[in-house]
Every structure is written in C-alpha cells, then in structure tokens.
Amino acid sequence: MPIDTPPRAMPALYARRPDFRRRWSRLPARILILVILLVLTACFVLPFYWLLITSVKPMDELFVFPPIWVPHHFAWDNFSNALGFFPFWQYLFNTVEICVGTVAGTLISNSLIAYGLSRIDWPGRNLVFILLLSTLLLPSQVTLIPLFIMFAHIGWVDTYLPLVVPAFFGNAFFMFLLRQFFLSIPAELGDAVRVDGGSEWTIFTRIILPLSIPALATVALFAFINSWNDFLGPLVYLQTESKYTLAIGLSTFLGQYGSQWSWLMAASALVFIPIVVLFFFTQRTFIQGITLTGSKG
Fold first, then answer.
1. Sequence-distant (≥ 6) Cβ neighbours of residue 161 within 8 angstroms
2. Same-domain check for residues 44 and 101
3. What angle do CA 160, 162, 168 make, to 5 degrees?
4. Which of 69, 77, 184, 274 has the least CB density, counted as fewest CB within 10 Å?
5. For the chain, what is the total number of helices (H) and then of strands (E)?
6. Which residues 6+ apart lie within 8 Å of 62 measured at CB?
7. 13: containing domain
C-alpha cells in the first residue's frame, strides 16, 4: 500500500524547487569563473614550470621547435654543474644571515611602533600615523644616494649593516598592517591588565603579541621575501665577492656562463624553491593575517 506524503511536508517540498532552479541558473556563471581562474592560474604557473623543466633539460633539447614540454632525458647533473661553478652555499649563508637580521629588526621595531599608534592615546597620534603612511609615496630610489653617502661616511659600505640596520627603524607598510590588527583586539583585555596594576609593556608582551601571531607571521614572511629577493641593495653596498647574496650571485653567474642556460635555470630553481616551500608551509597563517588585518580601521 503506497505511503502518501504527509500534507505538512508538501509545502516544504515545493519551497525547495526555486532554490534548485536558482542553483542551476547560476551554473554557467560558475563554470565561466572557474575557466577564467584556471586560465589565470596557468599563466602564473607556466613560467615556473618552464624554469623547472629547463633546469633538467639537456642542451640539445633547449632551443628546438616545437618546444619539448617533458624532456626525453632528465639531466639532473645540471644542478651539480651549476653548484660547481656557482658558490651557492656561501651565497646562501650570506643571504640567510641578512634575512634573519632583517626579519628580527622588522618584527621588533614595527610591533612596538604599531602598538603606540593603536593602543596608547596621545596627542597627535593620528597625524603622525598619516605622515608615516605618506612616506609610502616616496620611491626608495630617491633616498638611495643620500643613504649611500651617509653609510659611506660612517664606514658601513661593503658590510651587511646597511641591509639590516634600517629594518630596526620601522617600515610604514608593516606599521599599517600591525596597527590594523592591533585595533581588532578588544580594548577590554588591556583595561583588565591595567586594573590589576599591569604596565603597557605587560599588555604588549602578555596580551597583544600572543594574539597577533598571524599578523606577525605575515610581516615576517613579507620581510623575509623582500630581503631574499633584494638585488639593488646588495649590488650598491657589497663590493667583496665573498659577501655576495644569491641575487647578486645569479647575476654574476649569468655574466660568466650566460650560454649555459640549463645551469642558469638550475641555479635559479635552487634560489626560488626555498621561498615556494616557505609559503606553502605558512600560507594558512599568512592568509589569516592578511584577512584579519583589515577587519577594523
């Protein structure tokens, strides 16, 4: 004996049909968006794939038409050859040394300044913040010559100090990111610490910093990538070859062995792979920090 649908269930069944039709009507738009995203992804991924695949190609497969997308023979010895003519490990140590100092200075200076601009009320605070943001309009090339003259007078040229010490004096962009994140933390937490007799330093170290790990990780990642990829700074301030960074080393390698394109691509892959690996391990924290940074103005 067939079971009839209860009368009360019929209105709910009919009510779901418009939602079902609405979803089908949106399907072409979603497919179009998906296709556009796939095309854009391919445009970004293709250069990296070509770099990686060229780094393992033998010389006779480089300049052929049509191009070979998958090598018939993987020349893994390109990496060993590149490392043999390219002091990769020495340049890597130099680069990491600069990056660690830059990241430490960036986190210390910008977190303290951002805390003063967001959690402490003092006259002229908003005006100072606007002036700091206005420095973003000033290109770094404008201050390059005055800074070089100043560092030359105090004997810092051909050292890592001009590349590391400026990070301890703050960066307007990083101040903005951290300030916006600090503003999203409830002020009642700091007020509770003040009622208990805590100082601003206690609030900063015990409340603000532990809750700001996503934003701090984002700033650290930005600072690390900028320092890792920096070419102009080491080119201007470093003169001794043993102090070169990876970016300068690649340029030197290109000048000496420009015809060895497979070796050059292998050396380039060794330089950019650590950044890609670092981003994949920190992408969740990075995205969370960027998302929460703009939650309050």
1. 151
2. no
3. 105
4. 69
5. 14, 0
6. 54, 261, 262
7. 9-55
The letter for the amino acid at 193 is V
Q: How far is residue 128 from each of residues 11, 75, 118, 167, measured CA to CA in Å?
A: 62, 57, 12, 19
Q: What does the pLDDT average to over 167-171? A: 91
Does residue 83 sit within a domain? yes
Residue 75: Cβ within 10 Å count: 18
Q: Is residue 3 part of a domain?
A: no
- 48 and 153 in one domain? no
For 223-275, the pLDDT digits (tens) are: 998 999 888 889 999 988 888 998 888 888 777 666 677 778 888 888 888 88
Residue 131 is assigned to a structural domain of this protein: yes
Segment 10-27 shows an average pLDDT of 58
CB 219 within 8 A of CB 178: yes
CA 294, CA 146: separation in Å to the nearest integer? 35
Rounded CA-CA distance 285/36 in Å is: 27
Q: Domain check: are 184 and 140 in the same one?
A: yes
* 293 confidence band (pLDDT: 50, 70, 90): low
The residue among 277, 286, 233 whose CA lies nearest residue 98 is 233
Q: How far apart are CA 148 and CA 94, in angstroms?
A: 21
Residues 6 or more apart from 240 whose CB is under 8 A from it? 158
Domain identity same for 144 and 258: yes
